[in-house]
Amino acid sequence: MLSSGFSYVAQRRFTDPWCIGGDFNVVRFPGERTGASRLSSAMRRFTKVIDDLQLRDLPLLGGSFTWSGGLNNKALSRLDRVLVSKEWEGHFSRVMQCILPRPVSNHSLILLDVGGLRRGPSPFRSKNMWLKEEGFKDLVKSWWMWLNFRGSASFILAKKLKKLKGFLNSQNNEVFGNVVVRKNLVMS
């Protein structure tokens, strides 16, 4: 049963980005099945599970149905889909699902297009000259010990590294200044 399969996921209360996709063998709304005119109890249950897990059912690009069957393949349904968590959508804000041609199966392939990773500031780069500076390692160690965050181990590590990056960039500007400018001054 679909809802019992989701209960495992619901008990974990994931905080990391996650998604789930495949053939759920049920539609959410009457418009997702030819000939359906009313909301069935199976549709209500499926929608309730999605809502309870706070998942987002992404719009489907390239068509309305992912399955065809019956006599002469005239029965059409949207059985296949990808559901994403809010955290997933936060990481991949341009995420969308698209129907691809079905070469053999009566199910269409679904492509989850994340639109590339969100671009941000340039990545952090350490500089060898920092390690040669007297007292630098002790300074980094004291900053690290001073930083205090609550949460999972991965959350704490990410927050500490982000703060440490700021400290290091400030220290770099104060101690070494803009190396390119200094180099140009010396060379002129």
TrEMBL record:
Single GO term (MF): catalytic activity
Protein origin, superkingdom: Eukaryota
Chain segments annotated as coiled-coil in the UniProt record: none
Residues annotated as transmembrane: none
Pfam families: Exo_endo_phos (PF03372)
Residue ranges annotated for the Endonuclease/exonuclease/phosphatase domain, each copy included: 9-105
Protein name as annotated: Endonuclease/exonuclease/phosphatase domain-containing protein
